[in-house]
Design a protein that fits this description.
This protein has about 140 residues and is an alpha+beta fold. The protein has four helices and four strands. The protein binds nickel (II) ion.
Amino acid sequence: MAGVERFSVSIDRELVRSFDALLKQKRYANRSEAIRDLMRDFIVAQEWAADEEAIGTLTIVYNHHTPSINRTLNALQHTFHRQILSATHVHMDAHNCLEVLILKGSARTITHIADTLRSTRGVKHGKLAMSTTGKKII
Ligand code: NI
């Protein structure tokens, strides 16, 4: 294959055994595909560490009966309208709401938005998934 580079690495046998067991469990067809994914994760982690342009999805769960929470979250989302590409709201039951926001911007700004929304009174759980624009990854 053109553009493919092969290299050999020396790794402790026990580490390789643990890795092979895990990639079977994670349903990887072979080591190469698992290692490619690890390398991509490494690159994405570096994009976030270097405060590059990034993509994140923030999931928050909150009780909409909490006083003023709807107004607060709405105002925050308007404040950061440039970074929030999409917002999906699901009424999960009579009390609990789920929102998933797709965020694009500098890694630091996305983290700031996630921290701000997650720490809003009444938000029960918030999780930021840090992903990538994909520009540096093949
Ligand atoms: Ni709702």
